[in-house]
Write a structure and sequence with these properties.
With 121 residues, the chain is an all-beta fold. It has no helices and eleven strands. The radius of gyration is 13 Å and the shape is globular. It starts with a strand and ends with a strand.
C-alpha cells in the first residue's frame, strides 16, 4: 500500500492550492480517505475525508473553503483549498481510513509522507 501526496507549496493568504494523493497497492474504489494536518498546541486535525460512495466530511475550520474529491479511474484523491489563511500552514497527510473522522488509531490504515502547505505573504 502506498500513498503519495503532491501539490503543496507557498501561497499567499486568500489564495488557492490543490493537493493530490495518488494511491497504489490496493483497490482504490473501495477505500475511504482522509486528509490530516498538525495544528500547533492542538495536535492532529482531520480536515476532510471522503468515503467510497462519495460522502464527504469537513472539519468546521475548513468547511466552505476546502473541497475533497476522488477520481477512481486515476486512483487519486484531491483536496482543493481556497481562501487560505496563515493558520492553514501545515504538512498535509493523506491516509486510508475506516471512519470519518477517525476516532482512534484503529480507524486509520496507511499514511502518506505528506506535502507541505505554507500560507504567507
Amino acid at each position: 500500500v502506498q500513498l503519495a501526496e503532491s501539490g503543496g507549496g507557498l501561497v499567499q493568504p486568500g489564495g488557492s492550492l490543490k493537493v493530490s494523493c495518488v494511491a497504489s497497492g490496493f483497490t482504490f474504489s473501495t477505500k475511504a480517505f482522509g486528509w490530516a494536518r498538525h495544528v500547533p498546541r492542538k495536535g492532529l486535525e482531520w480536515v476532510s475525508g471522503i468515503y467510497s460512495d462519495g460522502i464527504t466530511y469537513y472539519a468546521d475550520s475548513v468547511k466552505g473553503r476546502f473541497t475533497i474529491t476522488r477520481d477512481n479511474a486515476k486512483n487519486t484523491v484531491y483536496l482543493q483549498m481556497s481562501s487560505l489563511k496563515p493558520e492553514d500552514t501545515s504538512k498535509y497527510y493523506c491516509a486510508t481510513v475506516y471512519h470519518l473522522p477517525p476516532r482512534s488509531p484503529n480507524d486509520i490504515g496507511s499514511w502518506g509522507r505528506g506535502t507541505q502547505v505554507t500560507v504567507s505573504s
